[in-house]
Structure formats: structure tokens, C-alpha cells
Amino acid sequence: MQISLEEQFQQKIDQEIKIEPKDWMPEKYRHTLIRQISQHAHSEVVGMLPEGNWITRAPSLKRKAILLAKVQDEAGHGLYLYSAAETLGISRDEMYEQLHSGRAKYSSIFNYPTLNWADIGAIGWLVDGAAIMNQVPLCRTSFGPYARAMVRVCKEESFHQRQGFECLWVLSKGTEEQKKMCQDAINRWWWPCLMMFGPKDDESPNTMQNMQWKIKRFTNDALRQKFVDMIAEQIKLLGMKLPDPDLKWNEATAHYDYGKINWDEFWQVVQGNGPCNKERLAARKNAWDEGAWVREAATAHAEKNQIKISSMLHPNDINLGS
Amino acid sequence: MKNLICRFFYGDYGEEKNNTTNLPQEESPENQWPLWEVFIRSKQGLDHKHVGSLHAADAAMAMENARDVYTRRNEGVSIWVVESKNIHASNPDDAAALFEPANDKIYRHPSFYELPDELKHM
Amino acid sequence: MKIKAKNDSAFIQYLLHLGDNALIMSHRNSEWCGHGPALEQDIALTNIALDQIGQARNFYQYAAVLINESSNEKQTEDSLAYLRDAWDFKNCLLVELPNGDWGQTILKQFLISAYQYYLYLELQNIQDEQLAAIAAKSVKELNYHLRWSADWVMRLGDGTSESKKRMTDAIDAVWSYTYELFEVAEYENILSVEMQCKIREAWIEKIKTVFGKATLAIPNSQWKQRGGKLGVHTEHLGYILAEMQFLQRAYPGSEW
């Protein structure tokens, strides 16, 4: 019996068989994945900027090394994700072009500023915490290269959240000024973090097709609730408060109730009116433009030297021990 | 069950209106560094395993980039890099022809053979 | 080679000098994080910055132990990095110069990596176990820094006409700061004269080889910028410290 390619494709998905780059796939599936993976990659790369702000101001050598390693990891995550998207036939340069021209979006959370040192802790604990909640299920997403990239990302991401909490933990045990920093950062990052999960389920612009294709498996509200429940407990250890007077435990639902999210602010930031949209994009464009001569030179050099590479290629050539 | 409601997916932040994302073009831009596939031996005695890809202008750079990107956490003792264009892959449409014939050759697997329990070390 | 007395203040100053070179270099490289010309290179330079900060910590921690043993002070790696003023810093001027473009950054990295590589090669045989151990660990890292930066010097020198011009300009801008690497301060006499000569010869040989392959020339100019090793710095170091030390200065005595 003959079944259509589309049906075969859906059968594979239903049987949890991963889709690989050369397999047949509906154009819409390819299109959606390119958009989602590249936006995810852009988020990692733009996400380097707010934290990168504090690398040169980190208050101890240990913190400096941790932060540097963490921001570097974000670059790595961006790279893994761009590579996954490239298996679908789009080049990294094209994706950059979409980012720089403003056509491709990235996570709005990175359009908020880092104003004091505790922001570094708050980003690790809250922003990365929210991200992990979304990312862990993506390790089982239907497209093989995306799922594999996410496995790598998630492995590295758990260090990020832990270091974030520990950074705030130390501040919360410190001087009055340090406690103030800690609370200030939590106050500013809490609501944008709740927005990271996206609009409420009944108001979301994108179709359920992605659920059917198992690009994604949990609803925004379900993940958001899980996040609130987790953080509402963890913050007690810090002796800090979440900036929400409506936050309280609900015996009936066995969840925390929380206040109304300002969706107008969310859409404003998505549209480009956040506190740092322009700076973030300008910084990325500038890095790209200033790097053009470097990339060209390396290409030119490679063309001149194609024959001289022999000895470099021995697999054991680089000492990887530390 | 295909009860479809609208949702907003993580990592999917919508697009500018009147401006759909371009579908991929066939060729990549001229001056982009080529793509390389990276294979890492995680410890002595194991096979090299594909870990991901990266861009580099030449083999030396690909090797160094692979070291910097894919072994930050002591993941390896040896690296191979291969320019992606040099990899020839089997076509998924041929999967039936290529791999299914092996399905009924169970005699290739040691468990096919029933041997007396008294026989040791085999 | 005489064995140093542990509380020898020249020896402590030498450790600080080594630590300051690594820390300030790391600081400059870390400024690139998030702004590199390609994602892969962003990651590569950050790896070098991380190695350097690790080296700085090793030198400072050792110096702190020796200082505390010989006085009532309670120095730590952080007090040494964050609570000394510019005149106490003993790094070479070369490492505090602004990054400039990617070419100038690469060039500085190459010049200093070659220096640190040959220096640590010698230091790992020195008769102070702790310093020798730090050097032995660091020399492996430097081996890679040197290889990576040399490859880039060759790419950019022998790349396009624009990249060649930029590298030539970078050499003109920083060359006069290279002499200081080999002007021996008093506290450096832990290195024998033979060792010093060996390091210098190996360094110049390496520079010549790589510049040769990069089709770049060593300038004739003999003008020497100096002072960093003795605490007389460029204007740039003050800004680096203002930024780096801000939190420690604004909130003294806090744990971070």
C-alpha cells in the first residue's frame, strides 16, 4: 500500500524516530526549524553581551575566571546551534545577515541591562534556570542535529545555573550593600524571566504544528508554572523576596499563584523598544563588520597555502592534556 | 490526538511582519570559511566519534578551532577534522537496499549458535 | 645557581612581575569576549585569557604565601590583584597597550607568548620547586598560545594587502615595547645570564622565522619604551585598574 511522504514523515515522528538532514521533510518543517534553531543560536551569541559587560569588572580572580568561562560557553552553544541549522541548508553568514538586519529575533531577555554585579548571579540563576527548563525537553526534539546540539548545551548549562545561585548566595550572606545588590538584581530580572516562557497558551501566535512535529513538547504556561514553583522555594534560602505581592502558595492547585505579567512590556521589547535592543544589535554588527578583513585575509592565506598543510594534519598533533 | 491550539515556542520569537525568513539558498556565500566536521577520540583505545562541526579557513585553523571549541572540558586526546564537502554520505532513499539485506543474516551474530553449556570460554 | 631564600623580597617581586604580566594580558584579551571576528576565534582567544588568569592566580597565590610568612600581612591573590596601585604593578608595558584591531591583538599575543614560552621553558628547571611547577604547567599552555598566535600572524601578514598593511602598522605601533622584555630588572636575577641570553636568542629567532613566513619585516627602529617592570607605566594601566578594581575599592573588605 502506498502512503504519502508526508504520512511517512509523521509516522516516523510518532514513533520517536529522529529526522536527519538528508531525510525527506516537509518544507514547512525545515523552515520552522531553521527559524527556531537560528533564533536560539542568536540568543546565545547576543546573550554573551550583557554578562560580558562584567568580565573586566568581576570582583575577584575566581569570579573573573568563572564568568569568562561561562560567557565563552555561550559562544560555544551558539556555534553548536548554528551548525545544527546549517545541516538544513542555510549558511551561518545568511543567519547572521538575518540577525543584523533585524529580521531574525533573539530572546528578549538579553535586551535588559546588567547594572550591578549581582546581575551576573541573577542571570545564571533565573535566566539560565528558565532557559534550562525549556531546553531539557529540546534534547528529545525530533530533528537529530538539533537534539544532539541541545544535549551538549544542557550538559554545560547546569554549571551556569549553579554558579549563578552560588554568586547570589555569597552576596546574600555579605554586607548590607551586597544584600541590596542581590535584591535589586532579583527585582529587575524576575518579571522579564517569566516573560521568557512566551505568551500565555491561549494567546500565542504560532501554530500547534510544532507540537505535532515534536519540535517542542510542553506548553508555555506549564513550564512557567514549574519555574515559579521552583524559584519561590529556592529564594527562601537567599533570604530575598520576589517582587510580586500576589505570589502565594495555593493549597488547592498545589502550585504558587503569581501576579499579572505585563505583556505590553513584553511586546514592546520584542518589537525593538527594550532598554538595550539597539546597543546589543550594534555590538554584534560592529564585531561582524570589524572582523570582515580578518576573515578575508584568512581565506586569502588559505588559498595561497593549500599545499603546505601536510604536517599539521596528524591527528595527535595537538597536545590535549592539561 | 491532534488538538491544535496556538502556542509560542521557546526559541521561536516570531518574525518581522511582511518579511518571511528566506528559505535556504543552495550555495553559501563566496567568502565564508568552509565547514569542517570534527571527530574526537575521547580516550586512548576508543574510536574517533563525530562531535560537531565548525568553520575554518584552512586545516590548521580547523584543528585549532576544534581543540578550542570541542575540548574545553577535557573531552579528548586526539582530533580529526575533515572538510564537510569531502564527506560522501549514503542516500536515505537507499536505506532499504543498503541495510535491510543485513536484517535476515542473523547467522552473522554469535547468539545465533546454540552450544552445549559445558563448552567454556567461547 | 643559588637557591633563593623563601622570603627574599626580590623573589617575591619577581613572582608579582610574572603574575602581573599574565593578569593584564588576560584582561586585555577578555575585552574581546563577545566581539571577535568569528565565533571560533572568540572562543580561542578566551581560552588564552583563561589560561593567563590561571597563571596569574598561581603566581599571586605563591607570592601571597611568601609575603605572609615573612611579615604580618594577610595578602591573598585578590588583594594583590585588586588592591595595589599602578606603581606597584611590574608588568611589561607591552601587555597593557590597548588591543587595537584584531591584528594588533594577535601581534601582541604572539610577541608575548613567544617570550613567555621560552621563559617558562627555563623556569621549569629552576631550583625553586613551586615556581618550577607553575612554569611546567604553564609552558604546555604557552606552547599552544604560541602556535595559535604564530599561525594568525602568518595568515594576516601573508593574507590580503589590507591585512598586511594592518600588521605592518601594528608592528610599528608596538615594536618599541618589545625591548623591555629583555631589559633585566634587579629582581630578575633569579635567571642566570646564560638563561637570559638563551631566552632572548630563542625569542628573536622565533620572531624572525614567523615574520619571514608572514612576509613581515622587523623594524630597524631601536627606540625603546621602558618602565613597566619598575612600576612606571603608560596611561593605559590606570584605566585598566580603575575598571578591574572598582568593586573591591567601592566595597572594601567584602567577600565575593
What's the total number of strands of chain B? 3
The major sheet of chain B is characterized as: 3 strands, antiparallel
N-to-C CA distance of chain B? 51 Å
Low-confidence stretches of chain A: none
How many alpha or pi helices of chain A?
Answer: 13
Low-confidence stretches of chain B: 1-12, 14-28
- Most strands sheet of chain A: 2 strands, antiparallel
Radius of gyration of chain A equals 22 Å
Strand order of the largest sheet of chain B: 2-1-3
Structural class from helices and strands of chain B?
Answer: alpha+beta
Please provide the count of β strands of chain A. 2
Query: Largest contact between protein chains?
Result: A-B, 85 and 55 residues
* Total helical elements of chain B: 2
Strand content of chain A: under 5%
Oligomer: heterotrimer
| Sheet with the most strands: spatial strand order of chain A | 1-2
* End-to-end distance of chain A: 59 Å
Overall pLDDT score of chain A: 91
Derived from helix and strand composition plus strand pairing, the structural class of chain A reads mainly alpha
Provide a descriptive summary of the structure in words.
The complex is a heterotrimer of chains A (322), B (122) and C (256). Chain A is an all-alpha fold and 322 residues long. Chain A has helices spanning 5-14, 27-46, 48-52, 61-86, 92-100, 118-138, 144-172, 176-195, 209-212, 220-238, 263-273, 277-290, 292-304; strands at 248-250, 255-257. In chain A, strand 1 (248-250) and strand 2 (255-257) form a beta hairpin. Chain A is globular. Chain B is an alpha+beta fold. Chain B has a domain at 30-112: Ubiquitin-like (UB roll) (Roll). The longest helix of chain B is centred in the middle third of the chain and has 12 residues, at 59-70. Mean pLDDT of chain B is 77; it is low at 1-12 and 14-28. Chain C has a single domain (9-217, 225-250), classed as Ferritin, core subunit, four-helix bundle (Ferritin, Up-down Bundle). Chain C has ten helices and no strands. The mean pLDDT of chain C is 95. The chains are: A mainly alpha (322), B alpha+beta (122), C mainly alpha (256). At the A-B interface, helix 2, helix 4, helix 5, helix 6 and helix 7 of A face strand 2, helix 1 and strand 3 of B.
Task: List its traits.
heterotrimer; A: 322 residues; mainly alpha; 13 helices; C: 256 residues; Ferritin; 10 helices; globular
